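Support reply, case 0932

Customer input (verbatim):
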Amino acid sequence: MLKIKPECLPCTLSTGVRMTKIATCNLELQRLAAQEIARRLGEVTWEEAPLDLSYIIQHIVARITGVRDPYQEIKRRSNLAILRCYEELKARIRGATDPLEAAVKLAIAGNIIDLGPYAEVDLDQPLKRISNNLAINDFPVFRRSVMESRSLLYFLDNAGEIVFDKLLIETMIDIRGRFFDRVGLVVKEGPLVNDATLEDAVEIGLTKIQNSSIMLVGDGRGAAPSFRSREVENWINDYDLVIFKGQANFEIFEDKCGFFMLIAKCPAVAEALGVKVGDMILKHSAYGKM
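Our regenerated output:
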């Protein structure tokens, strides 16, 4: 697990301030939230992961403003905007020289739809980035795993982006010529910036994937297991093909066996991967495999 660095604190404070402004126009509440976030960030032990900080600001903003999910409407618009292009994107993938590679690159490019590090996102960016080369490209290993695996566990990231993930899963099934025996789709138990939740998964039709089930993960405060828990580790060990989508899942699970698909959006993650900020990544990790 990657631990926070000093530069994570101002980044988190900035995200928290943006979240508060989305939640309320009340200046006094915005000030209270900013002060509380700054105070809480001053108490970090440096053993936290960046995801811990995201949960901290989410809880503070919800408590002070009374708005549990400030990004709810933004997430819904993101889902619907990408869904409107669904058939066009599917046709584009099927018409590619290598449909699986095209679906992988589109899914990775979709990771740009992240309102944690970014104040706003151009939803056309994924299509603009699909022609970019991957800075880390373990696609041959990925293709082999897709063809040989009987089960798939997919840790999803952001709303809107999950439409591209759905296209990738469908393309994997098409290329295989058969369904996976099991497909576990992991989303957040509750709101966390613009991360996908059960509501988002249902809205874009992920639950209609053959043999799929939704699995919830959280920070341990609710009914779902914590991302740090032995239960989640057991999920990972119980599936043949595991995909971790996005920066946060790389930061948390970088020592687990699976495939990491993401755009490196900050210097800390880029440094850990040995790439540049903005690079697209498909990295295989064999940790934990004998």
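We compared this against your earlier run and they match. Two observations from our side: Residues 8-65 form one domain. The chain has two domains: 8-65, 87-285. Please reopen the case if you see a mismatch on your end.
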